[in-house]
């Protein structure tokens, strides 16, 4: 009972506060109105067009209208945020009563302003099934507008686009289904108005079925009253009940609602007053559509059209062409009692009420400090990814062609149609596997080029303008038809869905995706969808002939592959993360390394992928994301180790298996009882390394002819470097030298290259395959690591490979495309401890596979149990931080490979050339740093390590994770 009484008291207090607020509003409105002259009252009716991209002549003209005619508002069109804010302050300072500021921001301020992030078209939003996302879009629109001192956002568009050929609405509509349009518009309205900005439903009574553009002529709507009430009015009725602040009335000829022939709806008393206000009960502010549009201005002269619009029941006369003439016409009508005091007061007082609600009774100028950042919050960029992930729609998925799986069995081509950019799409596709862009102006020649490809992705890319044509050209339709008849195709349309209308037969198209817009984000997101980074969720907001209906949309399978997004979407602060740039630049400026690639992924999404510097200090070739670095000892972790783990997973070897058992060479040595566990933990008492190459040099310290040839022959076929081939049997010499090498006196942690040199020998003996073939078939190819290889010059162009050293002690040449490690080079570039060349993205894939405990893209490479066994620090108690093959976070009080901020479950490896690959299961984090810090002289001090560059970058990553 006590609780009930408290609730009643609380409710009564709220009611009293609201009543007091209304009373204060009425007092203010009446006070202002009573102090106004007639001209000032009439001036409130006008909202004039303003631009922040025009010259002082325009500015002076606006100021004249403000000072001489006391106009009530401005609708801003083209310009920029700072310029508009500055002008708004300037204009408001001239106005006796603060003015309304309005703008068409149907997809955010970017509809009118440059330098502002653009949100998707309404048609794109119409495909989203989660209306909470649309509400959030509205909130962002509201925040943008409020920050810019804007009171009215002339959105949402309530037009139901039932005419696919509508020349002016189209993408501006949420679709052709009245229920979906209403739900989306209601959500958008709620978001906008929650932020204290008034939303405006438009274009009443409904512009969605028109065949012409009211900017140029008067469109006709030939529907019955019943049809209009059932369809076109449906969203208005729903939004009115939910508190829509204002409505914009269109210039339309609607015979069923206005019997006078060719009479614009915007000046129809029956439509604006009888239907909108009386029949539908709308009590909010009513705007005309722009009165300079030909749909209105062709009917009556400037001034006359303004008067007619006012008499029809509109409150605000938008984009009046001639305010002085219009004011004079209204004055005459008032004197002639055509316009009553009651009618004038009705609109002017309503305008004043809204000004009070907007806080204009206590007007404050716009603070221009940090304005650009405030209207472009980083979160909005992140939000774009979420919107497109929810919008992109799959309409066909025959034979489950989507997502593309088993990429090791695929050869994929990409063919571009359309006249706009495609780089983000193609780049994203290539992040997953090898995708070759194929083109030829001749269709027959193109088909010949496509002959050997198993799948063809066809991207249709059209310029991303709301009113631009998105039609296929006749030759493009013919090209698509021919490709589809001969190949398995996935067609991805980066244009409005209506672009599909000319395609009458989709039977030969196995996969069909509508990505709606040709933005960078839509291209990146759609590329991910094709390879299964997320499942498709979108539903078609319009019908496509009889082929596809409204709400068609298939769900596709999500695979556990890396995707791409903005940092904020995975709980990372991008501003903090961007500090990586300065650390990388510091390293390059101080000549710690000529260049570097850096990648960060979290929760299965790449959030940072950048390249810095050049291949060499002469600054000729810039480092690119697809360049290939010598990763040095990371080879151990991404080539040798996963193969060992597979054999362990198949019970081919145990942790207590003795070295003498797996390699007979060691049976007669003091190393025969070394266990697999000790070997992989680097506590087998093996030497760290031996400079085997020195034994092959002559008295002048040059490669001896006893061991090398400049040209290959039957006995010297193993290539060490350019024009340098070693004896075929020298690998046996190395292995025997390891078998005979002296064991260290104490069993403790001592990092040794011998471990992985030995393991390579074991793998090749056990599988009867060379390690490069083994790694390629078992891991690199199925993981889509198409930029990863031993001996990269056999596969990749030399200019993609940064050099690692100008060798002056062994090979005496610029080492580029040949492994830097001397022993590995003596094994022909294929070694267990070094030899892999790769890029950050490829390394991230296998690290993500580890992070997912042996699973990636729907495949299991080894069991979770096996991963956990290898990622365990078995000898931490003895002071050995290592896992089995993996390096681990340093133990307390000791130095190590990380920033000291990674978790105990984290793992990875570093490399001599200036590399690190590290993963942290606790934070679902992958970090890759690749460089060629050894260039031009690997014997110089390792300042990259001494200055903790890799560790400092890792520290920034952890700092950026939102707690």
Q: Characteristics of this structure?
A:
963 residues; single chain; 37% helix; 8-stranded parallel β-sheet; alpha/beta; 33 helices
Give a written overview of the molecule.
It is a single chain. This protein is of the alpha/beta class and 963 residues long. Strands 7-6-5-4-3-2-1-8 form an eight-stranded parallel sheet. Strands 15-17-16-31-30-29-28 form a seven-stranded mixed sheet, with helices on both faces. A six-stranded mixed sheet has the order 9-14-13-12-10-11, sandwiched between helices. The mean pLDDT is 96.
List strands and helices in order, with pairings.
Blueprint lengths: L1 H34 L2 H6 L2 E5 L5 H14 L3 E4 L4 H14 L5 E4 L18 H4 L5 H17 L4 E2 L24 H17 L3 E7 L20 H8 L1 H8 L4 E4 L19 H11 L5 E4 L5 H4 L6 H9 L4 E2 L4 H13 L5 H17 L13 H5 L2 H14 L1 E5 L14 E6 L5 H10 L2 E3 L5 H7 L5 E7 L12 H13 L2 E6 L16 E4 L5 H11 L32 E2 L9 H4 L1 H11 L5 E8 L2 E9 L15 E2 L3 H16 L9 H4 L13 H5 L27 E2 L8 E4 L2 E3 L3 H11 L13 H14 L3 H13 L5 E2 L14 E2 L7 E2 L6 H5 L9 E3 L1 H12 L3 E2 L2 E2 L3 H7 L16 E2 L18 E5 L3 E6 L4 E7 L11 H4 L2 H12 L3
Parallel strand pairs: 1-2, 1-8, 2-3, 3-4, 4-5, 5-6, 6-7, 10-11, 10-12, 12-13, 13-14, 15-17
Antiparallel strand pairs: 9-14, 16-17, 16-31, 18-25, 19-21, 20-21, 22-25, 23-24, 26-27, 28-29, 29-30, 30-31
Q: Which outline best applies?
A: elongated
Share of helical residues: 25-40%
Oligomer: single chain
The number of helices is 33
Average pLDDT number: 96
Spatial arrangement of strands, main beta sheet: 7-6-5-4-3-2-1-8
Based on secondary structure, the structural category is alpha/beta
Count of strand segments: 31
Low-confidence stretches: none
Q: Termini, distance in Å?
A: 42 Å
**Main pleated sheet:** 8 strands, parallel
In percent, how much strand structure appears in the residues? Answer: 5-15%
Backbone CA Rg: 35 Å
């Amino acid at each position: 009972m006590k609780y009930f009484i408290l609730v009643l008291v609380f409710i009564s207090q709220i009611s009293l506060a609201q009543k007091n607020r209304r009373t204060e509003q009425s007092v203010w409105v009446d006070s202002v109105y009573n102090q106004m002259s007639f001209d000032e009252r009439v001036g409130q009716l006008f909202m004039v067009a303003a631009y922040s991209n025009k010259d002082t002549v325009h500015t002076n003209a606006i100021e004249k209208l403000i000072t001489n005619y006391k106009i009530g508002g401005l609708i801003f069109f083209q310009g920029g945020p700072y310029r508009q804010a500055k002008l708004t302050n300037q204009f408001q300072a001239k106005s006796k009563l603060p003015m309304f500021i309005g703008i068409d921001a149907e997809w955010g301020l970017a509809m009118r302003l440059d330098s502002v992030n653009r949100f998707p078209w309404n048609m794109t939003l119409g495909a989203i099934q989660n209306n909470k996302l649309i509400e959030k879009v509205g909130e962002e629109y509201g925040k943008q507008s409020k920050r810019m001192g804007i009171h009215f956002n002339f959105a949402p568009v309530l037009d139901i686009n039932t005419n696919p050929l509508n020349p002016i609405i189209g993408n501006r509509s949420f679709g052709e289904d009245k229920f979906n349009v209403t739900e989306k518009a209601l959500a958008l309205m709620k978001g906008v108005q929650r932020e204290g900005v008034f939303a405006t439903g438009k274009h009443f009574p409904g512009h969605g079925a028109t065949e012409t553009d009211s900017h140029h002529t008067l469109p006709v709507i030939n529907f019955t009253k019943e049809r209009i009430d059932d369809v076109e009015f449906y969203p208005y009725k729903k939004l009115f009940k939910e508190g829509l602040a204002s409505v914009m009335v269109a210039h339309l000829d609607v015979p069923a609602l206005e019997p006078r022939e060719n009479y614009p709806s915007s000046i129809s008393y029956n439509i604006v007053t009888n239907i909108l206000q009386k029949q539908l009960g709308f009590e909010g502010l009513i705007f005309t559509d722009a009165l300079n549009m030909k749909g209105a201005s062709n009917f009556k002269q400037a001034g006359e059209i303004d008067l007619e619009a006012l008499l029809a029941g509109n409150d605000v006369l938008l984009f009046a062409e001639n305010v002085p003439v219009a004011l004079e016409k209204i004055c005459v009508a008032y004197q002639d009692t055509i316009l009553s005091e009651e009618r004038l007061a009705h609109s002017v007082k309503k305008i004043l009420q809204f000004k009070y609600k907007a806080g204009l009774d206590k007007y404050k100028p716009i603070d221009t400090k940090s304005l650009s950042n405030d209207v472009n919050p980083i979160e909005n960029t992140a939000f774009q990814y979420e919107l497109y992930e929810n919008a992109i729609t799959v309409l066909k998925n025959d034979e489950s062609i989507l997502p593309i799986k088993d990429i090791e069995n695929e050869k994929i081509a990409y063919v571009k149609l359309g006249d706009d950019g495609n780089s983000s799409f193609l780049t994203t596709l290539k992040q997953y596997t090898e995708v070759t862009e194929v083109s030829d102006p001749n269709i027959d020649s193109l088909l010949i080029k496509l002959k050997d490809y198993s799948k063809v992705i066809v991207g249709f890319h059209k310029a991303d303008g709301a009113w631009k044509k998105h039609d296929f050209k006749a030759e493009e339709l013919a090209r698509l038809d021919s490709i589809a008849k001969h190949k398995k195709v996935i067609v991805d349309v980066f244009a409005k869905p209506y672009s599909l209308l000319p395609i009458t037969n989709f039977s030969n198209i196995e996969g069909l995706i509508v990505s709606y817009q040709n933005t960078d984000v839509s291209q990146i997101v759609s590329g991910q969808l094709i390879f299964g980074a997320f499942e498709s969720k979108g539903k078609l907001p319009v019908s496509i002939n009889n082929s596809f209906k409204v709400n068609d949309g298939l769900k596709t399978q999500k695979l556990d592959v890396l995707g791409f997004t903005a940092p904020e979407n995975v709980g990372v602060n991008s501003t903090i993360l961007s500090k990586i740039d300065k650390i990388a630049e510091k390293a390059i400026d101080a000549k710690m390394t000529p260049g570097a690639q850096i990648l960060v992924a979290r929760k299965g999404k790449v959030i940072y992928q950048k390249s810095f510097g050049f291949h060499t200090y002469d600054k000729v070739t810039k480092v690119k994301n697809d360049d290939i670095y010598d990763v040095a000892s990371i080879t151990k972790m991404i080539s040798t180790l996963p193969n060992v783990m597979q054999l362990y997973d198949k019970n081919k070897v145990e942790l207590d298996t003795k070295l003498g058992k797996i390699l007979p060479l060691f049976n007669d040595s003091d190393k025969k009882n070394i266990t697999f566990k000790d070997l992989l933990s680097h506590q087998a008492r093996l030497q760290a390394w031996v400079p085997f190459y020195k034994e092959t040099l002559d008295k002048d310290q040059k490669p001896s002819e006893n061991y090398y040839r400049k040209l290959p022959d039957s006995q010297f076929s193993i290539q060490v470097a350019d024009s340098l081939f070693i004896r075929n049997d020298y690998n046996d010499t190395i292995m025997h030298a390891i078998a005979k090498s002296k064991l260290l006196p104490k069993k403790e942690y001592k990092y040794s290259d011998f471990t992985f040199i030995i393991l390579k020998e074991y793998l090749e003996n056990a599988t009867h395959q060379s390690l490069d073939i083994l790694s390629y078939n078992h891991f690199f190819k199925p993981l889509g690591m198409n930029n990863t290889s031993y001996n990269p010059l056999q596969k990749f162009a030399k200019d993609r490979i940064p050099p690692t050293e100008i060798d002056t002690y062994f090979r005496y040449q610029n080492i580029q495309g040949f492994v830097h490690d001397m022993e590995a080079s003596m094994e022909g570039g294929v070694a267990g401890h070094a030899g892999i060349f790769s890029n950050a993205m490829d390394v991230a894939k296998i690290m993500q596979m580890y992070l997912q405990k042996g699973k990636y893209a729907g495949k299991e490479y080894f069991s979770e149990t096996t991963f956990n066994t290898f990622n365990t620090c078995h000898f931490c108690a003895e002071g050995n931080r290592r896992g089995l093959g993996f390096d681990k976070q340093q133990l307390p009080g000791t130095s190590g490979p990380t920033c000291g901020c990674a978790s105990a479950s984290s793992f990875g490896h570093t490399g001599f050339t200036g590399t690190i690959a590290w993963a942290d299961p606790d934070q679902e984090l992958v970090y890759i740093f690749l460089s060629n810090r050894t260039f031009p002289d690997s014997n110089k001090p390792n300042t990259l390590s001494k200055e903790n560059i890799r560790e400092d970058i890792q520290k920034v990553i952890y700092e950026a994770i939102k707690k």
